[in-house]
Amino acid sequence: MAAQFPPLVAPSVLSADFSRMAEEVIAVERGGADWLHLDVMDGHFVPNLSFGAQLVQALRPQTNLVFDVHLMMAPVDPYLEMFAKAGADHIHVHIEAGPHTHRTLQQIRALGVKPGIALCPATPPEAVAEVLDLVDVILVMTVNPGFGGQKFLASQLPKIRTLRRMADETGRDIRIGVDGGVDVETAALATAAGADMLVAGTSVYGQPDYGRAIAALRAAGRRAE
Ligand code: DX5
Ligand code: ZN
Question: Which end of the chain has the smaller Cβ count within 10 Å, N or C?
Fold first, then answer.
């Protein structure tokens, strides 16, 4: 299937005020967010620590938003069940995180969670060719993962185009998400290349009006139609 419009907008709580996390989540739900992006960092796969399944579980009763959990972890397999039980609706794992991604994605599906595959900027699109039948989302990193507030890597746009073609060839409904440095300018570029899900940390939580920020991102995606 082709890219869907308008794109979904998934604010990343990594850029939220951690001392008021429940309020921050409710605020983006009221502001029209489609999904809530939760970035889990292990200090090993990426050079930063964020939070674990306890926070996911604590936030679950606060909102009806789809929980889009991005695990920047290696190994990741021992923790899948923990995040599924905590309330993840989607779990993204990195193709770079281990040699057995095929099994990992099957395990996520068996847990009743939608699997996603994430690719770091250095990874070519062909790296995920053999697992496309197992995923519902492809998450293209447009920064090196580990921190919010980094600059969008325009070098990743051809990769988004290639992955959109590869996803369409499966005949399945696969969302292509873009994660890192997404703002109204880069959202337009990414959606024109075939992305239909926008992760946004700074460009939502760094703005005074979350609802306006979310609408602006969605509208930037519409421009590409
Ligand atoms: C980066 C994370 C992103 C991050 C994006 O490692 O995966 O989801 O929160 O933040 P911004 O939108 O500020 O680049
Ligand atoms: Zn992320």
Answer: C
Res. 159: pLDDT tops 80: yes
Residue 157's CB: how many other CB atoms inside 10 A?
Answer: 20
pTM here?
A: 0.98
Report the chain's mean pLDDT, rounded to a whole number.
97
From the candidates 34, 39, 68, 196, which is the catalytic residue?
39
Neighbours of 133 (CB within 10 A): 10
43: left (phi over 0), alpha (psi -120 to 50) or beta: left
- Check pocket membership of 186 for ligand 1, CB cut-off 6 A: no
52 annotated to bind ligand: no
- Tokens read off for 38: 């939760």
- The response to whether residue 179 sits with its C-beta less than 6 Å from ligand 1 reads yes
Q: How far apart are CA 58 and CA 186, in angstroms?
A: 32
At 41, give phi and psi (nearest 5°): -125, 135
pLDDT tens-digit profile of 166-185?
A: 999 999 999 999 999 999 99
Does the annotation count 42 as an active-site position?
A: no
Residue ranges per structural domain of the chain: 8-224
Query: With a 6 A CB cut-off, is 190 part of the ligand 1 pocket?
Result: no
Q: Does 148 count as an annotated binding residue?
A: yes
- CATH homologous superfamily for 8-224? Aldolase class I (3.20.20.70)
Distance of CA 27 to the CA centre of its chain: 19
